[in-house]
Amino acid sequence: MSKELEKINLFLREHHVMSLATSHNGELSVCNLFYMFAKDKLSFVVASSEETLHIRHIMKNSIVAGSVVLETETVGKIQGVQFRGTFSLLEDAKLEKSYFKRFPYALVLRSKLWQIKVNYFKMTDNRLGFGKKIIFEDSSL
Predict the structure, then answer these.
(1) Helix, strand or coil for residue 126?
(2) Rounded CA gap, 35 and 51, in Å?
């Protein structure tokens, strides 16, 4: 794992809510989702109902973008990750098990599980210097 990806992974492990942006035919949507990040698959796993606007968008346009941020008013502590990827129905039993281990109450909701395969990360970490950016791109996807 690259040094850049390891820093991103450490940040993502400390958090559990992402903002996800979707679009279709000029209509935009943003939602917040609990996530589990699987660094070995470069993937987020999320749960959501097919009746939501963001999933209806994704059925037509699977390209998504999102972010995970640390809430702080201290400029020197600002951290956050932006990402882009492809959204699809989860078909990996190991990732499904990991998601329900982290969020056992999600079993009761009976929502479908989805996978976001990430091909681009940009992390801002002001602890490393004001405006410091860490970029990771996976060109194999």
Answers:
(1) helix
(2) 19
Which residue in 39, 50, 30 sits closest to 114, CA to CA? 50
CA atoms within 13 Å, Cβ hemisphere of 53: 12
Residue 3: its H or E element: helix 3-13
Q: How do beta strands 17-24 and 27-38 pair?
A: antiparallel
Token pair listed for 54: 């963001």
Question: Which residue's entry shows tokens 């190991």?
Answer: 94
Percent of the chain with pLDDT over 90: 70
The CATH number of the domain covering residues in 3-137: 2.30.110.10
Three state DSSP letters for 10-60:
HHHHCCCEEEEEEEECCEEEEEEEEEEEEHHHCEEEEEECCCCHHHHHHHH
Q: How confident is the model at residue 108 (pLDDT cuts 50, 70, 90)?
A: confident
DSSP per-residue letters across 74-124: -GGG-EEEEEEEEEEE---HHHHHHHHHH-TTHHHHTPEEEEEEEEEEEEE
CB-based contacts of 40, cutoff 8 Å, min separation 6: none
